[in-house]
Amino acid sequence: KNEVEQSPQNLTAQEGEFITINCSYSVGISALHWLQQHPGGGIVSLFMLSSGKKKHGRLIATINIQEKHSSLHITASHPRDSAVYICAVSPYTGANSKLTFGKGITLSVRP
Amino acid sequence: NAGVTQTPKFQVLKTGQSMTLQCAQDMNHNSMYWYRQDPGMGLRLIYYSASEGTTDKGEVPNGYNVSRLNKREFSLRLESAAPSQTSVYFCASSEAQYPGQGGEWTGELFFGEGSRLTVL
Known about the structure:
By secondary structure, chain A is an all-beta fold.
């Protein structure tokens, strides 16, 4: 069983819809990252969080440490949000340690 | 522009050839990483460096060597390339801080643009 599981595996949405991507992990962590990768492109860090909730523009990330679960929400989705979204965790020993990645969710937003 | 620079972006090798992927960051980060990304596998850690002069094996280190030459640079070497090493390689750097009990980790994580390597 992977230490980091993401769901759903693939997701298609209509422009304007509210989207939720989930990440569950089975190990103790110090922090969790949400990353975005556009087709053929590089990887960009969206959020790093270890508790509560963070918001940046139309993106909201939440984490529940007790339940070992995080969600990434996209409000008013747009075709440019089409990308792979990857969840990664830092172990409890420290957020500067090695990251463990989920396999990523492929999101397609149709106009 | 601040960030992680890795070279080359594309490379084709024949089996048995050697090459070095270069990575440099200008953000004064202590931690640097090399990952490979394969279809359906996600990102897998090859090697990790917590600080200048230290390196540590990741999940898939076989066939690779690394050098943390200084704080800025972290190179990945393939001594004798094999077709199984065909992949996209990403370098990353990060820094995180913990303010103390009751606080929350803060930090940043940056990736290079990736290097697409094909071994024939």
